[in-house]
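sry for the spam today, last one i promise. struct tokens for design, 66 residues
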């Protein structure tokens, strides 16, 4: 059986299931930024809506895990 994701509802469900949780994404982003050398100087983070929650998650995780 093949999954036809041309239906709008199925494609949204497929995208949601294939993503990682916010905590995992924040860890991935912090690891990536650390490899790039970001954070040696002060950073001003700006986020709106879900992006703001993502930035907040990175700040909280960074305080306790990195």
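last one done:
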């Amino acid at each position: 059986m093949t999954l036809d994701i041309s239906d709008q509802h199925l494609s949204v469900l497929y995208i949601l299931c294939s993503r990682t949780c916010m905590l995992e994404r924040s860890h991935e982003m912090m690891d990536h930024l650390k490899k790039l050398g970001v954070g040696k100087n002060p950073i001003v983070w700006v986020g709106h809506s879900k992006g703001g929650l993502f930035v907040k998650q990175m700040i909280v995780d960074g305080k306790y895990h990195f």
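Residues 50-65 form the longest helix (16 residues). ok im logging off now
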